[in-house]
């Protein structure tokens, strides 16, 4: 039997040397542009290349992000954007001077009228900040002074898939890297035993719009930067456990030999995906121990379940995922993405949004409270929000007790907390109809630029050359919203 190392050495020739040298020079140039230190051969083989972390462009205010994405488009009119004028004008047609010919979806474009529909729910001001919060969100109201409400978010996308894709990747077209992948590429990991980019999914009681795995995909970045989905079943991460009859020692031996073979292949071809494959095998091996530990909530005291709600004891619920996100934050997972589905309320909105708030309000507030108690909120950026808002007019028939709302990209509300964001403020304003922005608009790219800024990244400098063009999360747009920075 031939020695693979001997064969590998015989393959070396002048052409091979020059091609590998050029790749090495290119790699060093890229590393200098990004502020990255290249991993050594030993680090690549052992999967410990994450020890050599890149240098941030400036001092970060946040070490990690927990993004509570509310998929489907929560209604700002029912939750945070109090508009008493709508009550006075209930049932009247939306003035054309307000609508200004705005594009509508196919679900309401055929309506003969657009009757204004005020919220059926009451609003009060809360905390020293005096933030307006609906009675649907009593727990969020209690932490209002920790939050920064941005009421002037806007987007071009008017349908779910492109709108969610836009928030997560910076483009309405699929195929670009997600926010977590960009952070993984730019910053590396602080934890060698858990994925830097972790994804959790939960469903509301209403039949939700689907969520696609490409939303946490790596796009044109190396595959090691894609998000890892945690599930609620027996296998919390798929394909992690050893096959029956394979011991941990055997697994380790296989990985060692496989790493050596992949390393030789890497020397031959210089394909970065080979390095990704090595690191992913190593991460999977470490996760066999770390994943069961982080997902085991049995060590949490009863007071924690009282804080998050009893649903936190049920794997896969929004409350359980919020608690799991806190446990990941404690272990320095850099980007935790939660998707909660079910906010798409075209009909029967009063009933359905009540159920959604019941699922999410308590746990969202508990996460902020829990992080603050543990001293983690200062350097953890928590984000709550969806892909767009809802119309101020009723989709379909408006009655005394029922109505629906269509998609509305022109203005909607999100909130942020911790991670160097000013607490207890409301930023941006909408008109009396919650239809147009009147002050301090914040675009999706501005939001993304601000998120990266809090992590110590200049959004214009974190780029990747693909097919002859340099790409970035914010494309060719975006400004940091400095007024909300602490």
Automatic annotation (TrEMBL):
InterPro entries (UniProt xref): Alkaline_phosphatase_core_sf, DUF1501, TAT_signal
Domain of life: Bacteria
The protein, known as: DUF1501 domain-containing protein
Organism: Ulvibacterium marinum
